[in-house]
Amino acid sequence: MDAAPTAATTAAQLLSISTAFIMAGYGLSASQSSLPIISSHPASISTPIFTQIYHRGVSIMAPGSILSSSASAYLAYTFPEQRRLWATAGALVFAIGPFTQLVMLGGIHRLIKISEVGEVEREKAEKSGEVGRLLGNWNLQNWGRVGLNFMGGMVGLWTVLSVGH
What we know:
Layout: H1 7-39, H2 43-78, H3 83-94, H4 96-116, H5 119-127, H6 130-163
């Protein structure tokens, strides 16, 4: 039988679920609102703005992922009968880190490099379509991270609403 809910488990549920949804919304905002706007500008404008968006995003997403996943891990430990559900919620949110490292980081680093090079090389990257392609790929891949965060939040919410505690 599961342990009774406490202030700590209630706080962990709130942190796990709300942080996952906040990060999903944050990522959605970048993909839905920011990237389409900056993609319409030349590389001399779009790549430095992308670099700022990326660095600000890391400062939110990395600690948010750790917070949400840690809260889910605590709940998985505390409620053995719900262990698989909380572990799934935590794993989905935690997966944005490896997903970013394995799938997205090459394109991110290239966009950052383009933002730092001289005008001639930047224009070459723009005229070849590289900048537009990289921004489009990042946008599509970011939707994957939005989905991971959203699904992590949904699994946590479903666990609280259907199982209790």
